[in-house]
Fold:
Amino acid sequence: MKFCPRCGGLMVPHKKQGKAFLKCTKCGYEMETTISVAKEYQLKTGVSAEAKVLTTSLISEPPKRRLRRKEEYEQEREEWYEIALEIMQSEEASGEEE
Structure:
């Protein structure tokens, strides 16, 4: 693994006009290298079967939204209106007592 001589960032291989280069991921500094060095930079990852997580379709599916009827919306609005009126009346009553 090589690091950038300018900023210390990681140098990753890439090809440019058929030539192999190492390029800094931070500042973009490039240096020419041999193809054999670039081949050493292969990223390999593997996941063992024990590490994999199995899910069911019930967990993966988004919840279904329940649509409410117009009457339910109107009833909820009336309830909030009544609550707001009660709060306003209690604030007025407490303001008169002081």
The longest helix spans residues 70-97. Residues 86 and 92 are 10 Å apart (CA to CA).
